[in-house]
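Hello K.,

You asked for the raw outputs rather than the summary table, so here they are, unedited. I folded two proteins back to back in the same session to keep the settings identical. This is the first:
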Amino acid sequence: MNKFTAKLNDVNSPLPNAVKINKKWLRTSSPIEVFITDGNKLNFYQNKNYVSLSNKKNVDIVESKNISINWDKIIGYTEIKAVITSALNTTSKKKTHILIIGSAGTSKTVFLKVLEENLLTQKNDVHYLDSTTLSSSGVIDYMFNNDVRYCLLDEIDKLEKIHQNTFLNLLESGILQETKSKKIRKKSMKDTIVIATGNYKEKLIEPLLTRFLVMDIPKYTKDQFFKISVKLLTEQYNKEKSIAEYITKEIWRVYTEKRNIEPNMRQCVQVATLTGNDKHHIDMIISALDKYSLRVE
């Protein structure tokens, strides 16, 4: 049975006891359970292809969302997952936009890719945008030229300040507006939810930061890095546990201990994809990284 939440209103229906959703008549082949905000429950049943209200009152209907996300590809961050899921399922007219900030290799992009995959599977209008490949102005053009319900914006800190201001207005008012060559273009996007990532929050204008619910992912500790990497390599890259531990230990040694580079899960994945469960092959790759990879003095 489908479920909807509803609010009583004073609008008279053009047809007796019929109900509209977004100005269109609701058609259904099964009963729909409706909950009025004051706690009274009303039932709708099919009647000549229109849904009629059992107690003959008119209501505004807002469909309750049931977006579920399979987060298995992301290890940890349970609270962030819960916050994002809540934002996607809100029925409030005031949308909550989320910004995930953190160092490279902390799964920020993976969050967006997982969301894109799940939302597309559930036939939602979702668009993944990469600020580094589209360019700053390209992101804004894309938003104007496409119907975007869920905007997954990777590396928002790469946007130029002028285009950050364009997003500022969108997040505040639900209106995308830009002045270009003395011409103003405007688009209503009140139902749009933006989930963005960035590496450097200091590159974002302060007013834009305040419009987001900001999730700041800290750097991995050594214990966290080892635990997550081993789990990732064994579950998603078919590595034996001893091999996953070995790759992780060697990456930590080469990059973090010798070069003072923040731990990055990508290096572990890169070595895993280049090798099987053969330690000799892994040693060859590690030796090349040890000799030729970037050194930070």
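The second followed immediately with the same parameters:
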Amino acid sequence: MSKAPVSSATQASALASSLAAGKRDVARGLQYHFPTLTAPLRSQRPCARQADMAQPVRAYLGLGSNMGDKSAMIAQAIRRLDATPGITIIACSSDYHTPPWGDTDQDWFVNACVAIDTTLSPFDLLEVCLTTEKAMGRTRLRKWGPRNIDIDLLDHGGQSINTDRLTLPHPFLLERDFVLLPLAEIAGELRISGRNIGELAGRITDTSLVRA
């Protein structure tokens, strides 16, 4: 006895069901073999991130605060940075009590430096620093004025950059004792613009800069 012909609509419905089942099987297989695919993909980051470097580069950041619990603010910023993809904290200096610089009509600061390994470009790392400041409530009311957190990019693999957005090495690095002291603690052999950081820190005579 011959079978009744199957309509094209029925065939299409069966094919669609089969494909749907296949997609579910593939999805289950991907989740089983690659569970991290359920998390947001790194490729969803801004296009500028595609310029990230494959090999980590040693970079140095300076941190400061003169509002609220200053040491706690610096510690929080370091934790946020270390949790950022492409950044690994390598070393942290001691905290230093330091007088204000530039705009002296404000409270004293606590300053520190960190060494990091990063696969981020200098400009992407700068953006991370600024984003971290903003996330922690940083507001810019006046130049060099009071701030709950300040994160400066000091050096990025010895690169020399001079743009409206970023200058490397940091233009005031060699003038600021509150940067030289903590930086020398974690990178005494570092050379910036041909100058040895450890030697420069050793010449500091200002006794008002002390470990917190």
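The helical segments are 8-33, 70-82, 122-135, 177-187, 197-202.

Happy to rerun anything if the numbers look odd on your end.

Regards,
P.
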